[in-house]
Amino acid sequence: MPFGYIGQNQTKQQIKNSGVLSSFDISLLEKKGEASGSLEHIQTITASSSATLSFTNLANYNYDTHYMTLDNFQCTTSTTRYMLCKLSNDNGSSYVGSGNHYDRAWTRVDTSGNMSDINGTSQNDISNFFSIDSDNRTSHGYVYFYNLLNPNTSSHVSFQSMNSVGDYIYFGGFNYTQVETVNAFQLFLGGDAFLTGTAKLYGVKLWVL
Predict the structure, then answer these.
(1) pLDDT tens-digit profile of 95-115?
(2) What is the tens place of the pLDDT at every residue in 114-173?
């Protein structure tokens, strides 16, 4: 049920309305993709023995918040690997993987309810979104990126995932300590490739009134 703010009807008000968005208004905005929280699809990448998955040209879509889904990921070997991420300030010509510019704080929970807190500063990458291997199970998750295109603040990442290795649930976030525009990012595995998996990136629309 949508709610709106009822403003005062001033004597000099040019447009006569109550300032409330009706359920019809909300439905129409959602259909047009203009309601707050609506998603605009930016790019889909499907892995097939892929060493990396790179999302570039983010500046072509001016969003404060980006949302990414990660579905059905496996790696090519039976060795447990972790999905890592690096950010770029030059549209993917290079990725920041040294200089200790990533901070992390996340929690891992197993099916018995045991919890492990993982934290640290000065990491060389975003590590990690989930663990995977090549068995018949797959890993899934979603990620939010905040302020990537804002040159005046640092970027932040939050995520949640279900992992095929050990049936772990991960949730938490990362901070990119550099204050600069981030216009691309790359997903990768240390020493392995993505056998399967689909990553979809969206821009999250906000109200403009």
Answers:
(1) 998 888 999 999 999 888 899
(2) 999 999 999 999 999 998 877 777 899 999 999 999 999 999 999 999 987 777 899 999
Architecture per CATH, 39-204: Sandwich (2.60)
Give me the DSSP letters along the chain: ----------TT-SS---S---HHHHHHHHHTT-STT-EEEEEEEE-SSBSEEEE--GGGS--SEEEEEEEEEEESSSS-EEEEEEEESSTTSS-B-SSS-EEEEEEEE-TT--EEEEEEEEESSEEEEEEE-SSS--EEEEEEEESTT-TTS-EEEEEEEE-SSTT-EEEEEEEE---S---EEEEEETTB-EEEEEEEEEEEP----
State the pTM of this model: 0.81
Q: State how far the Cα of 205 lies from the Cα of 200, in Å rounded to an integer.
A: 16
